[in-house]
Each structure stands twice: as C-alpha cells, then as structure tokens.
Automatic annotation (TrEMBL):
It comes from Candidatus Falkowbacteria bacterium RIFOXYA2_FULL_47_19. This is Uncharacterized protein. Signal peptide: none annotated. Residues 40-143 form the DUF7088 domain. The chain crosses the membrane at residues 12-33, 484-504. Keywords: Membrane, Transmembrane, Transmembrane helix. Residues 180-440 form the ABC-type uncharacterised transport system domain.
C-alpha cells in the first residue's frame, strides 16, 4: 500500500511539473518567435531572403487573401497552408505587413472588383449526396502598397512556389523598377513569333518588363532601357554591324544570356552545323562554342515514331544533368536536381584571352559522355558507342569580369567589364521540353535572375525543386532495396517501436509484481 501511495504522489507531481513546463514554454513562445523546419530545403518556412525583404519594409503592405467559404473539403487544407505562410510574413515584418482573409460571397460588386483586379472565379467539382456538382469560388491573393497592386490569380494546390510569388509581388509593389529584359527576335531566334517559348516568356513577364529587340542589318543600337538581352537559338548569320551592337551593349554594362545550338536538328532528325556566326563574336571574348553534340550515357527518355509504332528509350543526345552536374558554389544552379538539355553542345574557354578566375562552369555532363563532331546521325535506333575516352564536358558557363573588347576601334577601352552566360543549348526552354522536364524552367529563370538581379530570389525559387532521381550508377539490387525501404520502411519502424514498447511495459509489470 505505501508503495502505491508513493507512486500516485509521484504521478501527481509529474503531471504538475509537465503542466508548469508547458505554461512556461507557451509564455516564452509569445515573447520569442521562431519556427523549426527540419526539411532539407526548408520548404515549409520562409527563407532568409523573404525575412530580410519584409524586415526592411519602411511602409505598410496589405495582403488580401480571397478564399470563398464554400470551397470543397479537399482545398480547405490549402487555405490553412496559405494562412500559415502569411502568418510568417506578418510576424517577421514587425507589423508592416497586414494580412486579411476575405470571403467574396455572392456580392456582385465584390466579384466585379476581383475580376478587374485579375482574380478570376474558379469552378470546383464537389460530390454531394452521391452526385457531382459544380461550385464557384475564389482562391486568389492581392498584394498592395500605395497605388500599386500585384495579384496571384489562383493559389496552386502545390504551394512550393507561393513564397517566391509573394516575395516577388512585395518587391514589385515596393520598388520603383526591377529590370527590363530584351529578347532578340530576329536572326531566326526562338521568339513568340516563331513559337516555342511562350511558357518561358510568360514566366519572365510575371517579374520583369519584357520587350522584343530586333537588330536591322545596320545594327541599330540596343535600347538603353534594356538591362539583360536574351539571345535564344539563333540560326541565321549576323551582320558585322549587328555583332558590334551586341558588343556595345556589353560595353555599356548590359548583361547577355546566350542559348546557342552548335548543331541544329531539322525535320526528320536531320542534323547540321549551325549557320549562325555569333560564335565568332564570343570567340573574341575567349569563349569557344563548339559545333558538336554531347552524347551522355546518363540521358533522358525520348519517344519516337516509326511507321505505325511509337517507342520510348534512353536517348544519349539528350544529356540529363543531375545534382552532381551543377556547380554547388553558384546559387543559380546549386539547388537544382535534374534538367534535360536536348542536343546540347560543349563550351570551352581560352585562358589566354580571359582570366580563368572570372569563368564559372555552371553545368557539365557526366563523366560517361563524349562528343560527336561530324557525320551527325541522331536517329534513335543506331548502336551509338563512345568515341574515345568518356569524360565530362562544360554545357553552360558564366563570365563575370574583364573580357577583351571585340571592337575596340573608336574606343579607349581594349577591355570591358561584362556579365554574360552561355548555354550550349536552346531547346531546353521550348514548351515541349518544359512539359517533359519542368525544372528546365527553373534553370532558365535562375539564369536570367542571376544576370538581372541580386541573387536573392534565386534561392527562394530553387529551394523547392523536387526531382530527386535514384542515381544511375547504383546496382539493380541496391535500387530495389531503396524502393522497398521507401515503401515499407516507416511501417517496419512503427511495428518495431510497438513491439519494443510492449516488451518494456510487460517487463515493468513483471518487476512490479515481484
């Protein structure tokens, strides 16, 4: 009996202590704000960039989240996720961000205002009383500061990029200008007129002012308003005056993103060396754009049609770059996991013309790749084998610093300070390949951001990249083991914990009975 009384007393004291600890922790949680996120890329908490952006606000920013009350049950959790994210913004802003959740209801004036602001009414399928019904509702966010507003028309079911959208919107309404991007539209480049890069174009417009730039044969100067010039997939020769205009743009402090195919692929997979001569300009800077194709044993899967049959297979001419193929010291690519670069060409730099310390290798193929320089047979059914010893090749490089002035005549400067990125492929940003490899779009946006902005926003967009393929060099047995552990591992852990708990309780009872 005495032992039982002692145990009851100990239990009461323990309960009182636990309640006291909870009360103290609860008190200090209001005094010291902090959230713990144990995921690798901190995908469930806002990044240091966003915290800094809202901490430095000097005026109030209003965020209005329009969520209807009649939303189906499957999106109610989404509303809570959005609320949690907005709570973090408000907490770190020291009161300068005001968050308001609004249910538009059926008021026609409110619905009209939302329509004019760019927040559409969405239609959801709801199952009620064994019948499918259609319900209208809103899931949009409006960010306002003064007379400026930015809109997130509809929150996606996957909120991984919501932080990027919110921080971008806050920056856009609180600063006078971010940057203006020019896209070269002549010389048979990829453009909206030729089609192929509409998705990439739309994504750029969400952050930047985007303008078409066309250089006539006389090489009219690129407008002063352009901060970064994108030259994507040119296939036609440039006149000397056009090349001079690009050089002048770099000399005055502009940035250039060149996406260039060393080999062009036409109808029927007919391959030929690219006729564009823009490589001659970059050769003067010390960047050699090889007119070759890089084949890699680590490759993407392509689908081909022969007669009435369609088949899919790994295609070496579509190098697949995974984590170890990205420069981990450069924020534009450090957090990427997997991109596909179809029919990519290799890039070399000449140390005699440019300081190697100013060159950053951004992307490189695996050590099991090789080059094809002539007799381009890219049909999928050939028995393609490595030509020579396999090795890694640079597929994208960045130059920041002093480069030779390609046209020093009439100028006092033999060298110019420049920021430019060269990628040995342009197909990766076309709509077809963005559907197959969505991370390609993140790569493109990051490259543009690294030339046009401070590198803040890159880290937000990249942190949620989720493609994590199993390494190709693992054996089949190891891969199978990893798959089974992934499927059944957690269940086994729970079962083992339950058995251990059962054993400990049984042992404790046995000791008490003694």
């Amino acid at each position: 009996m005495p032992n039982k009384k002692i145990k009851k007393t100990d239990l009461s004291i323990t309960i009182i202590l636990i309640i006291g600890i909870i009360a103290v922790v609860n008190f200090f949680s209001y005094q010291v704000f902090h959230r713990f996120d144990l995921t690798q890329n901190k995908v469930y908490s806002i990044s240091k960039v966003s915290k800094k952006a809202v901490e430095e606000l000097d005026d109030t920013v209003n965020i209005k989240a329009y969520f209807s009350d009649n939303l189906p049950s499957q999106v109610l959790a989404l509303k809570q996720e959005v609320a949690d994210i907005l709570d973090e913004y408000a907490a770190f802003s020291k009161g300068r961000i005001r968050v308001e959740f609004i249910s538009p209801g059926t008021d026609e004036d409110t619905q009209r205002e939302l329509y004019m602001a760019g927040i559409p009414q969405l239609t959801f399928q709801v199952y009620e009383k064994d019948q499918m019904q259609l319900v209208n509702g809103y899931m949009g966010i409006l960010v306002g500061h003064g007379d400026k507003t930015e809109v997130i028309p509809a929150v996606k079911s996957d909120t991984s990029d919501l932080e990027y959208q919110l921080t971008t919107a806050i920056k856009k309404v609180t600063v006078d200008e971010i940057a203006t991007i020019g896209i070269l539209s002549g010389n048979e480049t990829l453009s909206l007129e030729r089609g192929g890069m509409s998705t990439a174009y739309q994504e750029l417009q969400s952050l930047y002012t985007v303008l078409p730039v066309e250089l006539d044969e006389d090489g009219a100067l690129i407008p002063e308003s352009i901060d970064t010039l994108i030259i994507a997939g040119p296939k036609k020769e440039f006149s000397e005056n056009q090349l001079k205009a690009i050089n002048s743009f770099l000399a005055r402090g502009g940035s250039v993103l060149l996406l260039i195919d060393g080999v062009t692929i036409g109808q029927g997979l007919v391959a030929s060396k690219n006729a564009s001569n823009i490589d001659t300009l970059f050769a003067k800077y010390g960047i050699k754009l090889n007119k070759d194709l890089v084949a890699d044993q680590r490759s993407g899967v392509a689908s081909f049609t022969q007669g009435f049959m369609t088949f899919s297979s790994n295609y070496p001419f579509w190098p697949k770059v995974v984590s170890e193929g990205f420069n981990k010291d450069n924020s534009a690519v450090a957090n990427l996991e997997s991109v596909l670069l179809p029919w990519a060409s290799s890039i070399e730099t000449e140390s005699g013309k440019i300081d190697p310390e100013q060159v950053t290798q951004l992307i490189f193929s695996s050590g099991k790749s090789w080059r094809v320089q002539d007799n381009f047979n890219v049909t999928p059914n050939i028995g393609l084998k490595p030509a020579g010893e396999p090795r890694s090749y640079d597929l994208a490089v960045s130059i920041t610093g002093t480069i030779p002035n390609a046209y020093p005549e009439g100028s006092d400067n033999e060298n110019i300070r420049a920021r430019l990125i060269v990628v040995g492929d342009s197909d990766f940003i076309t709509d077809n390949f963005l559907q197959q490899s969505p991370d390609n779009l993140t790569l493109f946006q990051n490259l543009v951001d690294s030339l046009s902005l401070d590198e803040d926003l890159i880290n937000i967009r990249s942190k949620s990249v989720s493609s994590r393929p199993i390494k190709e060099d693992l054996s089949d047995g190891t891969r199978a083991t990893l798959r089974y552990l992934n499927v059944f591992g957690l269940t086994l852990i729970v079962i083992l914990f339950g058995l251990l708990r059962y054993y400990m309780r049984k042992r404790s009872r046995f000791i008490d009975e003694l």
